[in-house]
Amino acid sequence: MSPTHWLIVLGVLVLLFGAKKLPDLARSVGQSTRVLKGEMRGLKDDEDAAKPAVAGPAPVEQPSAVRNEAA
Question: Do the Cβ atoms of 33 and 41 come closer than 8 Å?
Fold first, then answer.
């Protein structure tokens, strides 16, 4: 969006809500965003904790012929 578009949006917001209520509206939107981010982070942490640990690959046994030569 160009700067002109942002000015139009800002003008419409001032007309709809009034200049006195815009700071309160912006503050409440910011708080809501922080709460939402915190909840999403909590959900991700819970999901990571619920996943079982993945074991590494099983050890590979050497063929018996190779073991006899080494001994």
Answer: no
Instruction: Count CA atoms closer than 13 A to 4's CA, side-chain side.
Output: 0
Is the Cβ–Cβ distance between 17 and 25 less than 8 Å? yes
The pTM assigned to this predicted structure is 0.47
Report yes or no: 10 and 18 within 8 Å, Cβ to Cβ: no
Question: Is pLDDT of 68 > 60?
Answer: no
Residue ranges per structural domain of the chain: 19-48
Token pair for residue 50?
Answer: 């619920």
**In which band, very low, low, confident or very high, does the pLDDT at 4 lie, cut at 50, 70 and 90?**
very high
Cα 2 from Cα 12, distance rounded (Å): 16
Q: How many residues does the chain have?
A: 71
More confident residue, 59 or 32: 32
- Dist. CA 13–CA 51, nearest whole Å: 45
